[in-house]
Design a protein that fits this description.
- 62% of the residues lie in helices and 20% in strands.
- It is of the alpha+beta class and 444 residues long.
- Strands 2-3-5-6 form a four-stranded antiparallel sheet, with no helix packed on it. Strands 1-4 form a two-stranded antiparallel sheet.
- Helix 1 packs across helix 3, helix 3 runs antiparallel to helix 4 and helix 6 packs antiparallel against helix 8.
Length: 444
């Protein structure tokens, strides 16, 4: 349990343009996540496993029922016999032999192995639901991070486009000044070089956007050729972040903890099932059978009716058997003990994993909260820098147009404003991503 309480206060309200992916007339982040849920192979495999575990649970209950077995045997025989004691009588015989039987077995006591097997099958079915939720969480986090990288890349394109537009406007203005002899052609060449540089930056920004789109398509297993991106107005607001509160909320619903709980129960039942090998085994068996043959011999050479009468055979002509079997294990060369040790080791490993999971989740949330606070502080600082750089740029622009400022100083001001705007865009989406991850740990 956390012994210290660290409260991070954030007062951040931002309204920004969010670019979302359109999937068959949908354009939200949740649509992308749901599309991934429906198409990722990991979840499809788990759905198949759910159906299999459900059947296994039913089959495990069948072990409480007796086993039944029916047998039927019918043979046609043709024999030749020579009887020397009867004046060399030679018998040419054709007859039938047959047997019908019904047998069964019922386990009365197996040390609880059957019941533990049923409980294990129920746990596997319940644990499968947690496994699905764990995979969904992993997919959700993956899609969120890639999705925001798409948003960042998209807005970076707009920033570079705006800078390129401004440069082209300056080229048009300076071209007129050069023709009128008011400005040097060197200034025009510097601006044209700046334009080509920003064209290259635009190509790089478009490349980053294309790569981000490809990664998003891969993350959601989008099979269509094109993934449309639209702009949606989204309001983001948060008043306070409490790391301890987020942690306590997260451990109350995250499926990873439920998954470990099911693993612990499963191996406990597995140990009980192995320990059943120390206990006696009691079962009962029964059988019902009837046999027939029509190979009587007439040594006088007469005729015998060898036809088989079904009604006569099945008319109260059955052998019956009922038995009880008790097996008491005395010595098994410590095989049961070895299996118990192996499964207890599994149980101990699960306890270690559980303790480590609590620590990992706490430190991850603590780091996330700390990063979010620093992002907000840095965002506000860069926002002020952009205001100053924009004001400086407008002043430098006016000075340049009046011929009192060199092209070099003007380009420095323009590049500085553009770079700060790109930095602010990065910090904004980094902050929004962290806020979205916090929402995830809050179960939103």
């Amino acid at each position: 349990m956390i012994t210290h309480k660290t409260t991070y206060l954030i007062s951040f309200i931002a309204t920004c343009i969010i670019n979302t992916s359109t999937l068959a007339q949908t354009d939200t982040l949740n649509d992308c996540i749901n599309y991934a849920y429906a198409n990722r192979s990991e979840l499809q495999k788990q759905e198949n496993a759910h159906s299999r575990y459900k059947k296994q649970q039913t089959y495990a209950k069948y072990n409480l029922l007796p086993t039944l077995q029916a047998e039927a045997d019918h043979r046609f025989v043709k024999d030749n016999y020579y009887y020397s004691s009867v004046d060399g009588y030679l018998a040419d015989e054709s007859y039938q032999l047959g047997q019908l039987s019904l047998s069964g077995k019922l386990d009365l006591f197996s040390g609880g192995a059957t019941l533990n097997n049923i409980k294990q099958s129920k746990l596997l079915l319940a644990k499968n639901k947690s496994d699905i939720q764990v995979i969904q969480n992993s997919i959700k986090l993956e899609v969120i991070q890639i999705y925001f990288s798409v948003l960042l890349a998209k807005e970076n394109i707009e920033v570079v486009k705006n800078a390129l537009t401004i440069t082209k406007q300056q080229i048009e203005t300076v071209t007129i000044y050069v023709e009128e002899g008011k400005q040097s052609k060197v200034d025009l060449l510097e601006l044209e070089d700046q334009s080509e540089k920003e064209n290259s930056e635009l190509i790089s920004a478009q490349k980053e956007y294309d790569q981000a789109i490809i990664k998003l398509k891969q993350a959601i297993n989008f099979k269509e050729e094109a993934l449309e991106v639209e702009d949606v107005l989204q309001d983001w607001s948060i008043s306070a972040i409490d790391a301890d509160s987020i942690y306590l909320t997260a451990i109350s619903f995250l499926p990873e903890f439920e998954q470990i709980r099911y693993d612990s129960l499963y191996w406990n039942y597995a140990i009980k099932q192995v320990k059943a090998g120390y206990l006696p085994y009691l079962s009962t068996s029964f059988s019902l059978s009837t046999g027939y043959q029509n190979n009587d011999i007439d040594l006088t050479g007469g005729t015998i009716d060898r036809s088989y009468k079904t009604s006569k055979q099945l008319d109260d002509n059955f052998s019956q058997q009922l038995g009880i079997s008790l097996v008491i294990p005395l010595y098994s060369r410590h095989q049961v003990k070895q299996q118990i040790i192996e499964k207890e080791q599994q149980l101990q490993d699960i306890s270690v994993d559980k303790a480590q999971l609590y620590q990992d989740i706490y430190f991850e949330i603590e780091q996330l909260c700390n990063t979010t606070v620093r992002c907000q502080e840095n965002y506000k600082t860069i926002e002020k820098r952009l205001e100053y750089c924009s004001e400086i740029y407008e002043m430098r622009k006016e000075q340049f147009q009046h011929g009192v400022l060199s092209i070099t100083d003007y380009l420095i001001a323009e590049n500085k404003r553009k770079n700060v705007e790109l930095l602010l865009t990065y910090e904004k989406y980094n902050l929004l991503l962290n806020l979205k991850l916090i929402d995830h740990y809050l179960g939103k």
